[in-house]
Recover the amino acids of this structure.
């Protein structure tokens, strides 16, 4: 939970009303609501999830908050971000893994997550930020974590600043947060 809060602090610091942003894993819509509260109805929130129920939950959550007008929801894999997001974005958030309380077989995978992350980095404006909550413990989670960690480790530091946060005294498979800022 603390890492999720840290991710939000990192993103909230740069968001302005009217911004365009991505939620790469809409789930129950908590991150989408957070993003919508910062960009307002004049902003554009591109939210992706494989599950229709997740998209519906996200839509309802934003509607209840009076923020539904900013939502551009897509029930498809985040691999398709480049096809559905027509402009640059100030921020992107990914909370990987599966939906708590949902079908654990519907889970993010290394290859599709990597494509989505690469597309989103390409869409970030200068000083734009991307956060990635990664969960190595579930089946396939370690492979996903390794792919992401290796990719981020070799991003040129003149183009992106990548930081990682984790419980130093936690389990080897504990969740971790990557926070990325694009330089130019
Ligand atoms: C940890 S949950 C996201 C929680 C969400 N951000 C929230 O605030 O409630 C992960 C979500 O990723 C979705 N997901 C799994 N694979 C996906 C993919 N390839 N593209 C988009 N969403 C995916 C799952 O359906 C699940 O809803």
């Amino acid at each position: 939970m603390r890492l999720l809060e840290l991710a939000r602090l990192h993103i909230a610091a740069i968001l302005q009303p009217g911004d365009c942003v991505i939620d790469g894993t809409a789930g129950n819509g908590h991150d989408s609501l957070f993003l919508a509260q910062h960009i307002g109805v004049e902003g554009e929130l591109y939210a992706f999830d494989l599950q229709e129920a997740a998209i519906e939950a996200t839509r309802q959550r934003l509607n209840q908050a009076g923020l539904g007008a900013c939502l551009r929801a897509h029930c498809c894999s985040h691999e398709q971000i480049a096809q559905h997001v027509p402009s640059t974005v100030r921020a992107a958030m990914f909370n990987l893994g599966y939906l708590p309380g949902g079908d654990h077989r519907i889970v993010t995978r290394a290859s599709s997550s990597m494509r989505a992350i690469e597309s989103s980095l390409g869409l970030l404006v200068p000083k734009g930020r991307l956060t990635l909550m990664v969960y190595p413990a579930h089946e396939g989670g370690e492979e996903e974590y390794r792919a992401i960690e290796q990719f981020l480790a070799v991003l040129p530091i003149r183009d992106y600043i990548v930081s990682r946060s984790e419980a130093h005294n936690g389990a080897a498979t504990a969740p971790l947060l990557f926070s990325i800022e694009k330089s130019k």
The domain at 2-176 is CATH 3.40.50.150 (Rossmann fold).
